[in-house]
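Bumping my old thread because nobody answered last time. Still need a sequence for this structure:
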């Protein structure tokens, strides 16, 4: 830092390159911002000593790296088991398909039956004893000893395991060749020895390509940072240009601009008044063409009749309101009589309907 708490112009650029471009996300900071806010520049430098390139603290980054290593080891072990499991399942599926189309030898049948029996018994044993921490009833009341009795003979298992190793190696080799041909289609015409050599180096090639992808991502990130900085710079330049244009307009405007604006306003006002008068004239013309004297007289007669009918209806409504008030004066006794009368009327109608039905019958 230069001169107390303030940073010099050269140091501001150094802080931007050291902190903002590498350790913090892209931000629209300039050297002027750091010079005007010296304590903020100190804060950035102090934060950069406790953060890594991803923005995490050094302790948290170390713990995260250890956790990722453990996850990677567990994932690798699980993938190995899963690949072996799927290869064995594919061998059994191929056996079922071949059994439908061709006649298999007794050794092939014995091998696949022993493999299938061993695999099923092993899976059932794992299901019957899931673990001490999980309290679950045994599967179908079977115990582990009952399931172990279904294991194939030991000599058959030893023979099957020896052949299974060869079958698995052959299946994995075919898959590796398929992966190689997918990665490099030109390898499809190569011999088996050349393919094996390429497969042996395929992991190195993939690692190298992954590294290239990571480097490309890093370059892309740098380009994004550069683009963000340029965008902020262009934005500030545009703001300065707009400020300059505004000042030029205010200082060098034509003296007659106000008079020209007044004349234009008067012209628009007169034109608007003329348009309003023209619209009113068109409206009156349409009304005169639509409603003649005879139509107006007919409309007047219709209105008089409607008004008379409305008055009659209002008189009837007033009479009904008076009658209703008289009924309301009678109170609950009248309501009970009305309900009783309604029930008697409904009963009479039901009996009348029943008599009509009996007479029809």
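Sorry it took so long. Here it is:
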């Amino acid at each position: 830092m230069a001169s107390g708490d303030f940073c010099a112009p050269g140091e501001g650029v150094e802080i931007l390159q050291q902190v903002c471009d590498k350790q913090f996300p892209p931000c629209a900071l300039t050297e002027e911002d750091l010079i005007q806010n010296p304590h903020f520049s100190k804060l950035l430098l102090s934060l950069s000593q406790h953060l890594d390139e991803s923005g995490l603290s050094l302790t948290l980054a170390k713990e995260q790296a250890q956790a990722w290593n453990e996850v990677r080891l567990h994932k690798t072990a699980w993938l190995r088991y899963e690949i072996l499991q799927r290869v064995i399942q594919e061998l059994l599926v191929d056996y079922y398909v071949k059994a439908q189309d061709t006649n298999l030898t007794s050794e092939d049948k014995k091998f696949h039956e022993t493999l299938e029996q061993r695999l099923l018994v092993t899976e059932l044993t794992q299901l019957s004893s899931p673990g001490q921490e999980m309290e679950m009833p045994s599967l179908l009341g079977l115990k582990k000893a009952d399931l172990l009795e279904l294991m194939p003979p030991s000599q058959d298992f030893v023979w099957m395991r020896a052949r299974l190793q060869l079958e698995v190696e052959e299946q994995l080799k075919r898959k590796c060749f398929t992966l190689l041909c997918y990665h490099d289609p030109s390898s499809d015409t190569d011999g088996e020895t050349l393919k094996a050599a390429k497969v042996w180096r395929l992991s190195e090639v993939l690692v190298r390509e992954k590294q290239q992808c990571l480097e490309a991502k890093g370059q892309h990130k740098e380009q994004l940072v550069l683009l963000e900085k340029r965008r902020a710079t262009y934005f500030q330049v545009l703001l300065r240009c707009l400020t300059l244009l505004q000042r030029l307009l205010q200082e060098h405007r034509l003296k007659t601009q106000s008079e020209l604006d007044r004349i234009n306003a008067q012209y628009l006002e007169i034109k608007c008044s003329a348009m309003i008068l023209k619209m009113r004239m068109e409206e009156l013309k349409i009304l005169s063409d639509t409603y003649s004297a005879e139509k107006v007289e007919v409309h007047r007669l219709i209105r008089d009749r409607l008004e008379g009918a409305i008055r009659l209806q209002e008189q009837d409504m007033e009479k009904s309101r008076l009658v209703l008030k008289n009924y309301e004066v009678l109170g609950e006794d009248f309501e009970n009589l009305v309900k009783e009368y309604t029930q008697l009327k409904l009963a009479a109608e039901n009996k009348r309907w029943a008599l009509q039905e009996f007479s029809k019958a």
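The CA atoms of residues 126 and 315 lie 94 Å apart. Let me know if any region looks off to you.
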